[in-house]
Amino acid sequence: MDVGFIGLGLMGRPMALNLIAAGHAVHVWSRRRESMQPLLAAGAGDCASAAEVARRAAVTISMVADAPDVEQVTLGADGVAAGAAAGHIHVDMSTIAPAAAQAIAARLAECGVTLVDAPVSGGEPGAVAATLTIMAGGDAAAFERVLPLFRAMGKSVTRIGGSGAGQVAKACNQILTGVGVAAVAEAFNFARKSGVDAARVREALLGGFAYSRILENHGQRMLERNFKPGFKAWMHHKDMRIVMGEAHRLGLALPSAAATAQMFNAMVGSGLGEDDSVAMLKVLENMSGGPDA
C-alpha cells in the first residue's frame, strides 16, 4: 500500500520504519528535516509538505503532539486536505481530545477526506517492536481498509466505534495508566519510608490481586531508578489535561484522575517533564524528605 507518514518523533519514526519493513511504500514529511533522515535512508519517499504526502498516497498517517498540530497538518495551507483526492483516508494516531477529533473529522469530510482516529498505547518500546495497542474510531469501511497498516505497527487493534471513540478509549487508558503509576510510586515510597525493601514488597504483590502490568514493568523501572523516557511525563501531563477537560465538558467527577493530573503538574513544574512518567516516584520522595531520608 502507498502510505504517507507525517510526524517522525519518538513514536512516529519507528512506526513508519515498521511500515517499510512490512513492505509498504512510505512517503514522509516532518517539520524537522533531520527527523526524516532515518526514513529516507530506509527507502521512504521525500516530501516537502503534508500536502505532497497526500498527493503521493491514498492513505496518510499523522503522529504529532496535540490537536492544534493535527489541525495544522490536515487542514492547514499545505496540509493533507490540500493535496488529497476524493476518497482519501487520513489516520491520526496522535492523542487528542475526542471532541477535537470529531471536529477535525467533520471538516475533513467536507474536503472528501475520511478521518480514522487511532491513538496508541505502548510507548516507544511498543512502537519499535510493532506491539502497540491501537484504539480506533471512525467509519467501519475506512478502518477495514487501513487494518493492514495497523497490523504492521501493533499487536492489538480494536475499532471502538464512531468518530472520536478511539480517543475516548485512549483517555480511559491514560486514566488507568496514570493512576496506576501514581499508586505504584506511592506504595514504593511508603515501603521505603517504613524501612522495608520495596523490591521485596513488589515481589510479594506480584503474586496477589495487586498484580498489574504497571507494577511489573513500571515498578521494576522505579526500583532500578531508570527514568529514561519511553513515554515522557509532559506527554502524560498533556493527556491528563485532555481527560480533565473532557470531564469538565461532560460534568463528570473523576477524583482519582484529578489527583493524578496534579502529580503530573508537579512533575512538569519541577523540571521532570522530559523524564519518563515513572519519575513520579521522585516527586513523592522529594515531598517526604528525599529518597534516603
From TrEMBL:
Ranges where the 3-hydroxyisobutyrate dehydrogenase-like NAD-binding domain occurs? 164-284
Q: Record's Gene3D superfamilies?
A: N-(1-d-carboxylethyl)-l-norvaline Dehydrogenase, domain 2, NAD(P)-binding Rossmann-like Domain
Is NAD among the key words of this record?
A: yes
* Pfam families membership: NAD_binding_11 (PF14833), NAD_binding_2 (PF03446)
> Where in the sequence is the active site?
K170
Tell me which SUPFAM superfamilies the record gives. Answer: 6-phosphogluconate dehydrogenase C-terminal domain-like, NAD(P)-binding Rossmann-fold domains
Q: Report whether Oxidoreductase shows up as a keyword of the record.
A: yes
Could you mention a single GO BP entry for this protein? organic acid catabolic process
Q: Where is the 6-phosphogluconate dehydrogenase NADP-binding domain?
A: 2-161
UniProt keywords (A-Z) are:
NAD, Oxidoreductase
Query: Which InterPro entries does the UniProt record give?
Result: 3-OH-isobutyrate_DH-rel_CS, 6-PGluconate_DH-like_C_sf, 6PGD_dom2, 6PGDH_NADP-bd, HIBADH-like_NADP-bd, HIBADH-related, NAD(P)-bd_dom_sf
MF annotations from Gene Ontology: NAD binding; NADP binding; oxidoreductase activity
Q: Which family does it belong to?
A: Belongs to the HIBADH-related family.
Name of protein: 2-hydroxy-3-oxopropionate reductase
Which organism does this sequence originate in? Thauera linaloolentis (strain DSM 12138 / JCM 21573 / CCUG 41526 / CIP 105981 / IAM 15112 / NBRC 102519 / 47Lol)
